[in-house]
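Hi everyone,

Forwarding the result from last night's run.
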Amino acid sequence: MNENVRELIQSRSKKVTDPAERKILVLEEEQAHSIAGKCGLKIKDVYSEAMELGIYPYRYLRNMETISIEEQFKLSKSRVAVVGAGGLGGNVILLLARLGIGQLVVVDYDVFDETNLNRQALSNVNSLGKSKSEEAVELVGSINPGVEVLPYQVKLNTSNASEILTGSDVVVDALDNIPDRFVVEKVCKKLRIPLVHGALAGFEGQIMTIFPGDPGLKHLYGNESAGSDRSKSPESVLGVPAPIPSLIATLQIMEVFKIILKRGKVFRNVMLHLDLETGEMNEFAFDKNV
């Protein structure tokens, strides 16, 4: 990055007082856009350069202390792939955008219909019939232009998955069927990328993080032929009301956060199961050598 960009960032940043009455040097959104346009850069590059200078993009000020500026910078340099942009994936995508992940790969071949409106965060009455992956580009751009979205309106399979997922730091499973989950897991293991699994039905949901070498989904489903009859799947029978995808997506986001920043405890070889109706949350540990 040339010195002119750094000089512009430094000259256009300003000191603000945060809610804890600390003086913080920040770069406001309008100034970031102006610098990006003047220098022919992406907004995310301006954000990253500011953070390297110790200057907070103003939008991340309320992350301070919980997420250091060094960690925020690392998030801005990360790539996360989200496979599925429906009820679970839509919430995941929007939360990752607000968190400041620099690049999102969004994979979903489907378009929105009216049955999606009860729970899918990317859907609205104006998006019916439109591509879920393309709508992710538009919505993320309106929330955080510092996040680049790479949309793929395809069904992930064994022939295209490696090309699409290569380069990702983490992959999020936001799918709605077991056979496709096994395809994603197999490719993630081959590419040595951690996979954050999530599933839900009714008011229940589960997450588990799978690293290369872990037994992974076989602990939960046995084999990829399980659940091949979609009409009998829990999602089809019980439906998916709005609260559960929001919660499971939040838990998946925290797994992504912990993996990238190497903080806290991930649910590795452990399934976390939640039932919102009964208020129960349980962990089920598995033998990592199975």
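Residues 18 and 62 are 8 Å apart (CA to CA).

Cheers,
N.
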